Amino acid sequence: MSAAAPALAKTPRQLAVVRLADASEAVAALSFGFGLLLIFFPVWFPQMIVRSWQRGQLMPIMMVFTLLLDTCLYLRVAYLQSAKPRPVAAACLGSLPLLVIGGLSLLLRSAVSHILLLDLPNLQARVGEEILAHTYLGLVSAVFLPFLVIRLLQQFKAANS
Amino acid sequence: MLGWTSLKWLLWISLYVIPVVFLPWAISRTWAHQHGKELHLKPQQMFRRGELGLPSLILASSVIWNLLQSGFTPHTAALGSVIMALSGMMAVTVWVETYCRQASGNDLRPERAWRDSRSLALLVFSMAAVLEILMDRVTRVVSQ
Hints:
The complex is a heterodimer of chains A (161) and B (144). By secondary structure, chain A is mainly α. Chain A has one domain. Chain A has six helices and no strands. Chain A has helices at residues 4-8, 20-40, 44-54, 58-80, 87-118, 123-160. Chain A is elongated. Chain B has 144 residues and is an all-alpha fold. The two termini of chain B are 18 Å apart. The mean pLDDT of chain B is 85. Chain B is 77% helix and 0% strand. Chain B has one domain (4-143). In chain B, α3 (53-68) packs antiparallel against α4 (74-103), α3 (53-68) packs parallel to α5 and α4 packs antiparallel against α5 (110-143). Classes of the chains: A mainly alpha (161), B mainly alpha (144).
């Protein structure tokens, strides 16, 4: 091998390191957007969410949205660090948003059944508010939790190596 | 329609923001004036060790308390509480981690601590604001 060969050889790219701050800013922006929509469209926005839940479209839309947002955030982190995405992180980002939204969908059904069993006045509005709250909490969890898991896995790996 | 009642959560949030950001800044200005020093402290200098994590946790605890007393079902209150608690704990972890790094003489990066604590505090404050709006709405529905 000639002397110039080591210099020409490709240096392996480092793996992307995720910090919670990367996802926090995006979730905060998402929260502010959700809050502003609630303030400026207090009737139309909740009704739109409730209608899409009744048609069975809300959960698939949330799954696609959070999956895309998580992927974009992770790729942005990797791009800014000029680093290679981690396979474990990619697997987490590919599966956790779907699992979280799926789990919360079951929890929402359980909450709606709970309200219907109580037979309280103003039932429809109460169910609407539960759907609205679950939509918001589902969006936040499906973006924040995968990054939290990746961060904890990174720390666990760093402690063991 | 946008009404003043919808914005009362802003007042509630400002009760936390004013003591956390404005009060330390005002006290530092008073101290500098009293001692005749030229001090122009910025928030990133005052909270460079991730101190914003502590008020974030306090705010998260307050929101959890309100959630548990709200008109939401136990499912929703529990879910909201867990997510708020996780965010608050992560915010305070930045402060504790920075303190541990400093105390052990480890690699201390104030700019990273400031960035992390600021982002997580922003997350907790924004979540608290939206959850307060949602609780305000559910209270009105329950009282009808």
